[in-house]
What does this fold into?
Amino acid sequence: MTADQPGLLEGAIPPENNTALFGHDAAQEFLAGAYRSGRMHHAILIEGAEGIGKATLAYRFAHHVLSHPDPLSAPETIADPDPNDSIGRQMASGASHNVLHLARPVDEKTGKAKSVITVDEVRRAGKFFNQTSGTGNWRIAIIDPADDLNRNAANAILKILEEPPKRSLFLVLSHTPGRLLPTIRSRCLSLRLQPLSAANLDRALAHLGAAPGESDSIITLSEGSVARALLLRNYGGVDIAEAFVDILERGSLTNREPIYKLAETLAARDRDVAYQFFTELAVDRVQAMARDAGVTGDLMEADRLARLSSVLKDHFATAAAYNLDRKQTVLHAFSLFFG
It folds into this structure.
């Protein structure tokens, strides 16, 4: 399957269409048990690294809840959703009256997703919950991810969470929950997902059409993320990662040719996804280096690298917000590394 909607990676299956989930059996058991108890929290914060199955889990659970509207008679496990039943068809087409997916809206001029979820999108949630369900069924909002809420949108969501309507369920997805409003986090029950094991990542990639053994090297670099594996596999991510590591290992700006070559590659007009992959890779790599320094007892270096990761993250966010030149953004990122 190709990326036929904004934000969907080539080779990925949209979460609302995906019938398989790998590596999160315990999370599914927890959600099924919480629902079956009849005392489920109205808002669940599903947190974890990007691309490990949070949205797929949310849609599976939504299908489970809508298929079994009486919690006390619901099964003890969450089954693979049937894409051909009425609930599955409606969710897949975005036509369900009981499920609202809040994500970054598409800019009509560019055809690309905007950088944030706006308050106008959250107002849709207010109208959604104010409508009376014709079936008396649950109303489920999937916020994907809540990290993208701007300040006004976050405050608007908070108001709904503070006084949730009856038979409402919020599935709040987050890659970096520490960046959410503390008041939003405090009103949610946290459910943390772990990166996929190598075996589960291999199964997930096979589900997406990878041949056996094809993805061994990619699995090593993917850190348990299907999204990162697809970036490595389909967007030249392996070459970008190898070039980035090679530059870091040189340890200085003495030889600028590899840096300029990588910056020019990432600045090309058709390399949007590859550029995004690089920005995430750079921040993740520094964070990993900070953790390694902490483990070895070099606390000063760990602190320096932790601060650097924050500076890099802000640098890339500012560049994205103001649509700054990507080549200069990449070059400046390396000057931060070696400055």
Observations:
- The CA atoms of residues 4 and 153 lie 27 Å apart.
- The mean pLDDT is 91.
- The longest strand covers residues 168-174.
